[in-house]
Design goal:
There is one protein chain. With about 300 residues, this protein is an alpha/beta fold. The chain has a single domain, classed as 3-Layer(aba) Sandwich (Rossmann fold). It has a six-stranded mixed sheet, with helices on both faces. Strands 6-7-8 form a three-stranded antiparallel sheet. The chain has a two-stranded antiparallel sheet with strand order 2-3. The longest helix is centred in the first third of the chain and has 24 residues. The two termini are about 15 Å apart.
């Protein structure tokens, strides 16, 4: 199960979890019309998209983010802000949102000083574009945010030693950040990448939400059974995307390929996908076909 059940947090709790959901951009409207940003997440030809296609895309991303918002809330997180994937997203606006997120309780912390006892887990979810080779977050007008820049924002916020940063980078090539995060040595850091550094992240259109393949595993396993007994697990069958995580305070000692990180999330690594046969999913690396389940239910 990707999410650890959380008790309802009371007003007196010394622990809390807040989440910032960032969708990034699909197109760059500043370039004159619906022009895809340099590195596309989707696999069909974006240059052939009509205005109607763009409107539909916006609708689907807004729908996905409503589902993601409810998902994070169900595990006890407070949503600081949810910004669905849109036509345009600037790096400057995103930096301002992240800084506001990291410092949302500054006044309270300054007033209480040493008496401020709350430990906060900050969750950032990003599902915009990722740059090949680096996994850097891509914005409109060819702007990029590197792993170092994001960690510098966290350092600038001067959070306490009890606070934790949990990042879900649901984007292409996101595994490229892991080596750098290991060298950064940031306390209480956990990072879930949607795929390896040389892989793309899938958005699958089979009428389920969220469409992100990474988040669908989280979503389905959480909603499978309100009284989860670990009778059901979802086996990863996508042959071209393999999620991977890094956590500086928890190791996968038992070899199961997952750990429960701060905030109650269960991060996971897929070393090898399960072979299901071509009749189970249908996808082409460079074509228009982009559908299929990619997750198989196993019952113990």
């Amino acid at each position: 199960m990707p999410w650890k059940k959380q008790k309802t947090r009371s007003g007196n709790s010394n622990e809390r979890c807040v989440a910032l959901l960032l969708g990034g951009s699909i197109y760059d409207e500043t370039a004159g019309g619906a022009s895809i940003v340099r590195y596309g997440r989707r696999r069909d030809d974006e240059t052939r998209r009509t205005k109607k296609d763009v409107v539909k895309d916006n609708f689907l991303w807004e729908r996905d983010f409503r589902a993601l918002t409810s998902l994070f809330e169900r595990v006890g997180a407070t949503i600081f802000q949810s910004v669905p994937t849109a036509l345009h997203c600037s790096k400057l606006d995103t930096i301002e949102r992240i800084l506001s997120f990291f410092t949302f309780d500054d006044i309270e912390r300054q007033q209480k000083g040493m008496a401020y006892g709350k430990a906060t887990t900050f969750i950032i979810y990003w599902c915009g574009h990722g740059e090949p080779n680096t996994g850097n977050w891509s914005f409109s007008e060819d702007e990029m945010m590197s792993c170092t820049e994001l960690i510098n924002l966290w350092t600038l916020a001067n959070r306490g030693v009890r606070d934790a940063l949990t990042i879900i980078s649901d984007t292409c090539f996101s595994g490229a950040w892991i080596d750098e995060l290991r060298t950064q040595q940031v306390p209480n850091l956990a990072y879930q990448a949607a795929c390896h550094s040389d892989e793309t992240a899938w958005v699958v259109d089979d009428r389920n939400v969220p469409r992100s393949l990474l988040m669908r595993k989280f979503f389905l396993e959480l909603l499978e059974d309100a009284e989860f007994t670990e009778d059901h697990i979802y086996t990863w069958t996508c042959p071209s995307q393999h999620p991977i995580f890094f956590c500086d305070y928890a190791d996968d000692d038992d070899g199961k390929g997952y750990v429960v990180v701060k905030g109650g999330l269960r991060f996971f690594t897929v070393d090898e996908h399960t072979e299901m046969g071509q009749n189970y999913y249908d996808a082409e690396p460079n074509g228009n076909v982009r559908h299929g389940k990619f997750l198989k239910i196993d019952k113990k």
